[in-house]
Structures are given as structure tokens and as C-alpha cells.
Inverse folding.
């Protein structure tokens, strides 16, 4: 695989660092007028999601990481692996281990499309779309007519996530939910 | 568009400042036959002709040695491999030399120019060692860093840690004298200063060293460092050394990053915001 030198570092570049694939978030060139040049680099570890900063001497290089992000449809889980299928018509499938879906497990809905990050063709992380429409499977009984006032209660949706919802929401309602914040947006259809 | 207009106004103000003080504007060659040996500065080589000059320093000093009065140049310089929020391979440098000035007198004039452009403010003076100590003990450093490189990194971090305000950094260790004299009273300290404004290194000045033998020794030491690091080995600038042998009058000189001054004036966060065509868009 190719190497990238510090002068080629830029936001979005995928490189290997300490054995893990990382995405460069920020690269700052630092140099005193009459001194050694450095690059201060912020990374996101694509496996753990952790962000950290390292300083390199300018001119050092890192190996490129064979990382790509694909849109894939979620199929099912067998308890050990979570299965996804390419949406390019090839019906090619890939099995993601628990570590890859750790952050998105409660947002996996069959036949939805997810962004799957592959490293050397193995899935290492899965991101849900920003908004999903999900059915409420568990919540306290709704309070009819209470549509205007504040107040909220927890509701469990079909994928397993628990969302804070207004008091009028009932089991069977389909909600539009922001998966980034885990917040209720609206009812997706009347009930 | 505002940046273009402010740039034009600042160019005018700087020229008026020097005109009012009887300092002569000169234009030396941008493409020169030789270049600096400083290991921290890489020049762009032009096949068969020489180098795009990383600073007009040597040519300006040759003019001084030939009898020119106090002078300045305001024009483009080039440094290979320097690119970032605060660096662009081509930038505008304001460099001036004052006959009969010491570094301390020149610092006063630098402050007067900066006051004119950015408005008056206080200037604090602190020693190089104080800046380095601001970097603290928690600094993450590359594994194979050499002592001098670590010092450079700590200095860069220390400068940022200074925060808002205007600071003159003085008392550079003698191995970072570059082309400054060493102090008569203490040869471990160089008569060199830098001006830092709001965490940005803005200007670097010297009480100029004219001794050709000492200069040649420093160039040789630079070339040894370059050799061990596998860097390009430029020939020593013999025309410059010959001029120094003829005699550099007592003087102090300073180079100021004009584009950075413009950044400060406009409150810009990125050099690209104050240049019409930064690298990559040029």
C-alpha cells in the first residue's frame, strides 16, 4: 500500500497508525521561523471512534489504510454477526462482528441502508442514516389530547433504542427519530 | 475583496513609514545564484540559474557593504515545503536594515511600525527560555526527536501559549544565533529577537554579524547538519562572504511576514484568507 507524507496529510485521508486504520481530521503545520517543522495531526481511530492528537516531524510518512465506506442494506443478525448486503445490485453480503455495530446496534432496521466502513474488506463500523422512521413497541399509555404541553416519557422503538417522546405517543405509532442525538422529531404518520 | 483593499493600504502605509524615516526602498533579485545554508529553510532550485530567494538578506547586506544607506525590501520570498494555516511557500516579506542601530533600537522601530498598522499596544519582553518553559511537561512528542528539534517544538507550543498580546522574545541561545552577533557581555546569548503577536511569529531580527570567518564557520556547521539529515547541500554564498570581508557597516536588521501582519489586521485565521492566490489556487 502507498505511503503518505505529512505534506499530503489532509482531512479525510485514511492512514494506518499504531496498527489501526485512522481518518485524519485535522493537520496543522507548525514551524518556528528558524527551526524544525512539525505537523500536529488529529485522528479518529476508525475502529474505536476515539479521537487523539499526535505530532510528527514534517517529512515523516504513514502507510495508507485500505478503507472505504459503502452503502449497505441491513438484513438480519444471527446473534453473533450482523449481516449487510451491497446495494449495487450484486447482492454481495458481509458479516459485521459485534465490535463494528457496537454504536449502532439499537438503530438497525431491516431493509434500511447504512454506511458501512470496510477495512481490508472487513466491516469495522456501521453508521445509521441521520433519521429513521421507527415503530414504538413499548411505552406507557398515551394521554389523549395532551399534544401541546411539555413533558415526556421513554419509549422503546422496534430496533431496541429508547427515545424520549411526548406524552401523547402510543404503542404502534411510527416516529421519526434523529439517530445522532437519539431524539424524537415527529410522528411519521397519524395514529 | 476587503483583504485586497486592506493589503493595498498596508503596502502604502509601510512605504510611507520608511519614506518618512529616510529608509531607501530597494528591489534585489528574486532569483539569485546562491541561497542560505540554514537547515530549517529549504529553497526552490531553478535549473542552471540558482534559487528563488528565501529572504533578500544576503543581497541587502551586500548593498550595505557596498555603501548603501539604511534600506528595505518589500516583496515575495519563497520557502519549499512550508504550507499550512500560517505558512505559504510564497509570501511577502518586509525586511529592513538600519545602519548604526542595535537590536534594542531596532525592536523599538519594529514596535512603532506595528503600532502604526495594528494600533498602539503594550509590548512585553521575555527570554527564549521562558517561552520554551511555557510548553509544560505534558507535551506529546515524536519518538525519535532530537534535542534541538524538541526545543523547536516546545518553542512553537510556547508561543501559542503566550496567547493574545505582543511579545518580544530575546536572549536566544548562541546555537540559534543564525546571523546575529553574540552578546559582548555573554557569548552564550545571541543578539537576536522575535516579535510574537497574538501567538503568531511576526518578525525576526538581529544585531548583524559581519565577521566573515565566523559566518563561514556557521555556514559550514549548517552544511554538516544538512549532510547528516540528508538535505540538499547548497554552495556557500561566496559573493556574500566577499562582501562581508569588504566590511558590513554596524547595523541591525529584521524580517517581518507581511501577510501575517495582514492576517492580524483583519483578524483572519488562515493566510489563504489574505492572499489573492494562495498555493493550490495560484
Amino acid at each position: 500500500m502507498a505511503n503518505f507524507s505529512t505534506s499530503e496529510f489532509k482531512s479525510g485521508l485514511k492512514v494506518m497508525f499504531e496498527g489501526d486504520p485512522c481518518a485524519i481530521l485535522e493537520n496543522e503545520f507548525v514551524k518556528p521561523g528558524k527551526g524544525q517543522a512539525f505537523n500536529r495531526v488529529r485522528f479518529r481511530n476508525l475502529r474505536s471512534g476515539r479521537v487523539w492528537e499526535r505530532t510528527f516531524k514534517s517529512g515523516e510518512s504513514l502507510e495508507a489504510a485500505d478503507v472505504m465506506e459503502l452503502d449497505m442494506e441491513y438484513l438480519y443478525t444471527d446473534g453473533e454477526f450482523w449481516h449487510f448486503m451491497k446495494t449495487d445490485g450484486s447482492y454481495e453480503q458481509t458479516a459485521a462482528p459485534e465490535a463494528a455495530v457496537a454504536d449502532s446496534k439499537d438503530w438497525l432496521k431491516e431493509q434500511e441502508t447504512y454506511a458501512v466502513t470496510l477495512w481490508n474488506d472487513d466491516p469495522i463500523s456501521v453508521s445509521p442514516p441521520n433519521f429513521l422512521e421507527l415503530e414504538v413497541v413499548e411505552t406507557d399509555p398515551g394521554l389523549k389530547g395532551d399534544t401541546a404541553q411539555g413533558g415526556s416519557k421513554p419509549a422503546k422503538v422496534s430496533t431496541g433504542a429508547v427515545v424520549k417522546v411526548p406524552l401523547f405517543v402510543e404503542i404502534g405509532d411510527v416516529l421519526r427519530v434523529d439517530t445522532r442525538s437519539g431524539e424524537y422529531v415527529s410522528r411519521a404518520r397519524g395514529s | 475583496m476587503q483583504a485586497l483593499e486592506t493589503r493595498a493600504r498596508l503596502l502604502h502605509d509601510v512605504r510611507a513609514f520608511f519614506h518618512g524615516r529616510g529608509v531607501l526602498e530597494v528591489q534585489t533579485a528574486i532569483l539569485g545564484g546562491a541561497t542560505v545554508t540554514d537547515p530549517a529553510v529549504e529553497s526552490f532550485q531553478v535549473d542552471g540559474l540558482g534559487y528563488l530567494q528565501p529572504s533578500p538578506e544576503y543581497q541587502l547586506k551586500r548593498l550595505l557593504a557596498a555603501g548603501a544607506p539604511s534600506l528595505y525590501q518589500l516583496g515575495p520570498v519563497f520557502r519549499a515545503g512550508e504550507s499550512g494555516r500560517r505558512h505559504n511557500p510564497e509570501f511577502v516579506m518586509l525586511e529592513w536594515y538600519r545602519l548604526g542601530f542595535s537590536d534594542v533600537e531596532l525592536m523599538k522601530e519594529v514596535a512603532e511600525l506595528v503600532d502604526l498598522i495594528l494600533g498602539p499596544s503594550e509590548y512585553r519582553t521575555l527570554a527564549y527560555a521562558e517561552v520554551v518553559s511555557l510548553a509544560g511537561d505534558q507535551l506529546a512528542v515524536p519518538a525519535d526527536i532530537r534535542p534541538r528539534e524538541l526545543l523547536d517544538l516546545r518553542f512553537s507550543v510556547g508561543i501559542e501559549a503566550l496567547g493574545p498580546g505582543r511579545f518580544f522574545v530575546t536572549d536566544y541561545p548562541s546555537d540559534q544565533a543564525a546571523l546575529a552577533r553574540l552578546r559582548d557581555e555573554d557569548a552564550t546569548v545571541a543578539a537576536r529577537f522575535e516579535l510574537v503577536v497574538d501567538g503568531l511569529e511576526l518578525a525576526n531580527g538581529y544585531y548583524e554579524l559581519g565577521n566573515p570567518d565566523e559566518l563561514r564557520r556557521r555556514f559550514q556547521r549548517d552544511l554538516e547538519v544538512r549532510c547528516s539529515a540528508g538535505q540538499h547541500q547548497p554552495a556557500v554564498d561566496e559573493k556574500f562572504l566577499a562582501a562581508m570581508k569588504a566590511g558590513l557597516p554596524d547595523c541591525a536588521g529584521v524580517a517581518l511576514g507581511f501577510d501575517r501582519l495582514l492576517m492580524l489586521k483583519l483578524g483572519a485565521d488562515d493566510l489563504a484568507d489574505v492572499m489573492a492566490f494562495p498555493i493550490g489556487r495560484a
